[in-house]
Amino acid sequence: MSDLIQYFREKQLKQSSEQIMKGRCPYCSMQCSMELIEEHIIQRKRFKVKPNKQDPTSEGRLCIKGLQAHQHAINGARVKYPLYKIDGEWVRISWDLALEMIAEQFSSLQQEYGKDSIGVYGGGSLTNEEAYLLGKFARVGLQTKYIDYNGRFCMSAAASASNATFGIDRGMTNQLTEIADAKCIILAGTNIAECQPTIMPYFRKAKKNGAFIIAIDPRETATTKFADLHIKVKPGTDANLAMGMLKVLVDEKYCDETFISERTRDFEQVLEQVDQFSVSTIAKQCGITSEEILEAARQYGQAETGMIFTARGVEQHANGYQTVRHFLNLVLATGKIGKHACGYGAITGQGNGQGGREHGQKADQLPGYRSIENELDRKYIAAIWGVDESELPRKGVSAYELIETIDRQEIKALFLMGSNPVVSSPNAIFVEKALEKLDFLVVVDMFISETARMADLILPTTSYLEDEGTMTNLEGRVVYRHAERKAPKEVKHDWQIICELAKSLGKEQYFTYEKVEDIFNELRQASKGGTADYFGITYDRVKNGGVFWPCPDPSHQGTLRLFEKSFHTTDGRAQFHTGHELIRSEKATKKYPLILTTGRLMEHYLTGVQTRRSQELIERSNEPFVEIHPQTALEYNIENDTLVRIESKRGSVIVKSKVTESIREDTLFAPFHWGDFQCINRVTNPALDPVCRMPEFKVSSVKISPVQPIKEKVAQVTVVI
Ligand code: SF4
What we know:
Elements: H1 2-14, E1 16-24, E2 33-41, E3 44-51, H2 64-68, H3 70-73, E4 83-86, E5 89-92, H4 95-113, E6 118-122, H5 128-142, E7 147-149, H6 156-166, E8 184-188, H7 192-195, H8 200-208, E9 212-216, H9 222-226, E10 229-231, H10 238-251, H11 257-263, E11 264-265, H12 267-274, H13 279-286, H14 290-302, E12 306-310, H15 312-315, H16 320-333, E13 343-346, E14 365-366, E15 370-371, H17 375-385, H18 399-407, E16 413-417, H19 421-424, H20 428-436, E17 440-445, E18 457-460, E19 469-472, E20 477-481, H21 494-504, H22 516-527, H23 539-542, E21 547-548, E22 574-575, E23 594-599, H24 615-620, E24 625-628, H25 630-635, E25 643-648, E26 651-659, E27 667-671, E28 700-706, H26 710-720
The structure holds iron/sulfur cluster.
Iron/sulfur cluster is lined by residues 25, 27-28, 30-32, 58, 62-63, 65-66, 196-198.
């Protein structure tokens, strides 16, 4: 018997093989690295994932999403060749034909309606090289002004606020390791415990070292439970809260006068403003107590070191820009910046939310955070690209406005790469109707997403295991992503698709790259001397742990901590925000008495196109829900775990109820990872921030009602008859 077992073991060993592939999780901005081990045992494949212990950011950790990330890459539903829609049916076509068709359609539309009749829509998960190339393709390949990307919905408030206050937008001003020594930490609108779980040990260390942690969130989450003080603020009033805290810092003399006078501008105007309101008024506006504001301000004010982090909870508002600026006022007033364990961080949600916003996917931007409206910047980039400056288009419009431009039929065709706006945009029903008006929609994706389903043509692209490139993580560290898995035969990388399409459009000479590193080297040149200067960062250097930008030359070690000596402004001083007008577009009304806020779940990423294709993740979380307080549930006759309709003036959605005390009585919460009739963005608010054009996802006035079970309805009908 044992001989037989031995025989089979040996046979199995002979027929087994394994491939070890290095990779980097494609989901959040921690960009944790890993090894994927693909074992072939006789006819079967088995996958194991091992975190990379040498990763300086994740320190050898992976969360549940990272552990399962490969499942979408190996999913059988991936698009494996170009698909063209004929009479509603997908037909397999060759790459040559696909590219020829796109070139023909785009060229004839541009001839008839002008260059700007084509739009380009990118994504925050593209590599730096692909984000850069997509921006160049729009400006040089198509010469259209209409390009923007889904990162607009993620980082625009924090980015614009940092630029205005500090003169530079790098997500974190310090390395993550400094968090351990911060004595007070404010987490404003961020649920890191679920959204970026591998970051949590940095905060746990801080807590162990005696830090006081303050979480600001209308709902209880794993993060707020970890905090020492949870301020359950009313959605849309975060700016008020920050102003209230500043008043306490001023009144109780916690401000750093030397820092203010030597390194900032316009504090006098801030002083005038804080005189105009009382803490109790602010507390009332925020739906909290004065004591909470006092406690938070005192803890932050008296702490020797401190850090403030913001995320979408306070940023995705029609006043997101000014809200972040008010939080940055706290940083400046106390001088808690530019030194060890003192600083600010915007916790980026998207995998390459940082790099994706630096090199030209934004409507008003050229690579290196240069401005498309600045004459010197235009000339510099035109020279790098080998075109005349006058040929470069001017600035376009933000992501949601791009959809509005499509709705007005000014944009006739759209080239969309790495995004799913039908699910991710606010007012999703309108967005779907707008896209239906397009003459031609091309979607580059791995799957037939909700948006790809509407396309005329789908081009298949590679996954994170197959696509080499660099990413910039939430610290501002540029890291290298290996690509050791072979892509399916007819699937191409995003950068290859862009280059081949440019060739079909007769622009081949501007897109002659043999490998992805060639694109990075051009990006380095294009960013040289810009705000986001990558010139000193080379592939050799990023393959060894990563480099923090700005890094102006190859001998520069990279900037680990920003603002030690001066800010990135013309006079080196940081700018206090002096506006205190409180924009809030939507309020609870008689018809729509509740405020809906949205967010993420630990198991899913963005619109779920990838994570909903992972068996393990979908087993843990397979449908959306709405959190509702027991008192509110009682008032609206809603039982736990039953179907409810959420309705705003824009549309409605039916999801399951989750009755819980963790949410405020006047607020509902729902996750945004599902599409079609489960898409919560069918009801969300598209009001845009006047500065950064961020939509107000986090404040939508809605009503809620129970949906009667079908059986009950049938019984009622029977009675009537
Ligand atoms: Fe790391 Fe974020 Fe991926 Fe989780 S989702 S493994 S925290 S990169």
